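Appendix B: complex inputs.
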Amino acid sequence: MYWLKQMNLINPNKSIIMEEKYILKPQVKYLSFAAIAVGVISIAIGILQTPARAWTSYLIANYYFISIGIGAMFFLAIQSISQSGWSAAFKRIPEAMGSYLPVAGIFMLLLYFGFKYLYPWADSNLVNADELIKHKSPYMNVGFWLLRVVLFFGIWMLLNFLIRKESLKEDIEGGFKHFNQTEFLSKIYIFVMALTFSLGTFDWIMSIDIKWFSTIYAVMNFISGFHHAVALIGLVIIILNRKGYFKMFNDSHLYDFSKYLFVLAIIWGYFWFCQYLLMWYANIPEETIYYIPRVEGVFKEVFFLSVALNFAVPFLVMLSLKARRSKLAYSIVAILMLIGLWVDLYTQVVPGSIGTLHIGFIEIGAFIGFAGLFAFLFLSTFSKAASVPFNHPYLSESLAHHE
Amino acid sequence: MYNKAIRGPLVLGNKNIGQITSEVLSPMERKLPVWWYIALTISLSALTFGAWAAYRTIAFGIGEWGVNNTAGWGWGIINFVWWIGIGHAGTAFSIFLLVLRQKWRTSINRSAEAMTVFAILCASMYPLLHLGRIWLFFYILPYPNFRGPLWINFNSPLFWDVVAISTYVFASATFWYVGMLPDFAIIRERASSKIKKVVYSILSFGWNGSAKTWFHFENLSLVLAGITAALVVSVHSIVAMDFATAVEPGWHTTIFPPYFVVGAIFSGFAMVLTLVIIMRQVFNLKDFITDSHINAITKILIFISLIMATGYATEIFISWYSGNQYEMFTFFHNRINGDYRWAYWIMVTCNAFIPQLFWFKKVRSNIAIVFVIALLINLGMWFERFVIVVTSLTKDFMPANWHSYHPTIVEIGIFIGTLGFFVTGILIFFRFFPVIAIHEIKGVNNIGEESNH
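Resulting structure:
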């Protein structure tokens, strides 16, 4: 085949790349099962003792990995649309991260049992007593909410499936057909995702503070998912590279991932600041109701910690040219950012639902559980196909990427 | 690396370096065509009309405009935002496409940057003229003064605007000019007359092409690129805050800053498209600005159009979701429906629906249709600002204060004048400046060929 000939010119180790396939070792598998067990235990204990805390932790952890999954798929789509060559070799990683979404949909539906601890609009007495909540009830009601979950996740799963299918077929057949088809699907995916994920963030998180609203909210959470997904993708590549996979991974690739972290940190900070500044400036009650408990109450430190971890850390560290090419610096930043996403979600969810600051076994345990599940689904999907898409038209560009 | 076999060539026609120079510079070196004089006459007439309108405004005051106590802002701010938006594309091309490694930008960035400079100059006319007493403009500058304890309101987004835009003018003009230095030197070398040689020698700052000069040049470009990248976002965010900080229905919404930035890039790209289609046609530059360039820009326009559509949908949804009766009135009874619904629907049609035609390859490859759609996007973006400014202001909280707004001939005249200024600037640019970055296009001429490996 022509593409393989092309590759031969550049990379004599073609066969190594072609045969490279991730093997999910039993230790890793058991570790993730152990993590899932921790999660199940802590959520179970939580439901028996303090159900409100258990359900908020459950929502935070599930939403955390939904936004990572969506962000990873967005990364994949944007690479395809913008004809980016440098990242072609790594596309199997974001592809596999999308595999969490079907499970996440089921967890979202199970949230039904925790509704009364989270969403004021699910309580019919409250809805009848309050004019404003009543106004929203044609949209914010239990039945329609569940229907939307089914619809959104259904669409995402379908598109994920189609994109993955094209990618796997490309391995067998090669050529331009599947490459072009992926680009087309990516366009649809981005459009659909923009609408569905926007409404999803309103439904799942914003509606906890039922009287408060912000138009930038959806984009902000969307970018946050993208930002943290890139952090995780890079981190996973660094770890796998240490384990002997992705041998062609060089500091030019790393440099590009670092640039993404840098730029997205600026965008994240920008959105965060737009919302904060405009609400502070206008100073009207229907908006400040959201910020008062976060800025003046017990959540103050956590609230600003989120800005530090999600904006200041990646921005300041990645300013340095040396740091952008250092695996260590990238790893530290990525880990801090991944903690930052949890902190960010915590401050979005908890002040409106529980109202008191309490981070303990339930919160951390639930997160560990979901992380284990995500890791297991991601790695087992990743192990099912060649780790490098060897027929990708831009692969030679990606392998020889030097800047 | 760039693989030509897969991605296709960026410059058509297998040219050598000498051919590129002569073809790009041919508009400057051959005799001026008749259409150039005709176009210049029209644009100078428009400019004269604008000068008359500016004279009326300065000599007789803002009473010459159609604005009133209720609708205190009218065409002035609409056109200001419109021009600023157009001005964003130059920087967006240079910076974002550079960051995203889009090598095809090299044949378009020069004209986009030129457009930026002229568009921002047009935009800056409006706040100046709206001051009423334009000769007191310097009051806005924060300096220790003798006017008593009268200091500038640093909390006002209008002041932030002055700071952001003046910075942007200087930064983008410098970026544009510095980029032209090596090309000026080429023109100098080729100059036929003595005067031309001296003029371009001065313009090129005595460029000598040594390694050291190139080193300085590249470093300076990098620094300027970094500065302007932040400015792209900051300028239009602050323009958005002129509206969003006010507690006015339809204005006070948190999505405004990014939404304005995206809208600005949208209108700017459409204007770039309009311009390069004309340019490649009249100067026969189709080997440099190829069909695949046009194709790439139209694809970006679909993408941005979808973001705009999502923005419109979000606004409508949240206005309902908020349960705020004023917000709901503005969107459902004053925009979607009501006296100004025609403006709202022109905006939605031109910005959200018509660009979707670019999904079809047939549409994308028909240059005439692409040209028309690009113009329609510019129209749609103008109406977006019209909708925001006029619908919110004319009917706000108190029905007793409602008042309609109609522009006068003076306001229209100023707009026509800035259009004339813009076209004049572009015509001069076409004639006296290298319209394509010669040194950059040479860099991508043979990109991705076997010999380069």
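The radius of gyration of chain A is 22 Å.
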